[in-house]
Amino acid sequence: TVAVLVRHEESCCKAVMDAQGIPALVQLLQRGGGSLAAHSAASALACLAADDRLGSDAQRLAREAGALEALLPLLDGVLGGNAAQAATAGAATSALADLCKGSSASATQLRSLGALQSIVGLLSCPHAPPALKTHACEAIGACAANDVSACDEVRRLGALPLLAKLAKGGTKQVAAAAA
Considering the entire predicted model, what is its pTM? Predict the structure, then answer.
């Protein structure tokens, strides 16, 4: 799949960008949380946004293609305990984190979409696996680091006690992300 290729082959990242593949990946997100295609597309977007050479261009193209809006519905369904939807939500929160790292435009847009409420909600979800909580912490951190108003929003939503609890009692990976 594209997600595997962009994760392991640097030339594939550039090829996806050159072929204007980001809008196609965003379209795949619309298949929903139970879809392997949506999971793979979210993972691919995260890899593209995290690429050192292409990251800012990938972030801009993804934002322009509507990736932030398309990723948000993938966070739903986790409360029911569905493992496939939780895995897709993890890929989506990872993509949101990578799309916001170093990008005030993405962070501001994510906040204005009301996404922080959904992401903070994942931290207290008993069915959310540790990897999902780790990515949620990273997304909150990336958004808050790049949008001053997001810091206020995170506090208003009551995320600080949740983050403190995860930093003390979560798995090592979740604790590191929450700190």
Answer: 0.87
**Identity of residue 31:** R
Cβ neighbours of residue 152 under 8 Å, at least 6 residues apart? none
CA distance 56 to 126: 34
Q: 179, 137 in Cβ contact below 8 A?
A: no
SS (H, E, C) 83-99: HHHHHHHHHHHHHHHHH
String of b and e for 45-82 (b: at least 16 CB within 10 Å)?
Answer: bbbbbbbeebbbebbbbbbebebbbbbbbbbebbeeee
**Dihedral sign of CA atoms 74, 144, 148, 117 in order:** positive
pLDDT along the chain (179 residues), means of 10: 58 76 92 87 90 82 95 81 83 94 93 92 83 90 92 90 79 62
Cα-based torsion angle of the residue sequence 107, 24, 72, 47 in order, rounded to the nearest 10 degrees = -60
Question: Which tokens hold the place of 150?
Answer: 């997001």
